[in-house]
Amino acid sequence: MDTEQLLVTVPKAAVMTDVGRSTGYELVASGEWPSVKIGRSIRVPVEALRAWVERRTRMTNPAGGARLQVGVPFDELKK
Predict the structure, then answer these.
(1) Proportion of the chain in helix, strand, coil states, percent, rounded to 5
(2) Of 4, 18, 64, 74, which is the most buried if we count CB atoms within 10 A?
């Protein structure tokens, strides 16, 4: 029976979304990526990563690339 992983470490989330490890931790610290703390460990829900990618995909710039601005609230990027 295959089970899908619900939570991943920040470094794994960074690899999954093709951002740097430090950027992943910045995204967690800013609240851009929701996280779950288990003891001293931080995990990111896989579904939250999918939702984040969906939001970023819809916010493409005229050149066709997605904009990534760490620490900028999602609502601010829409302006």
Answers:
(1) 45, 15, 40
(2) 74
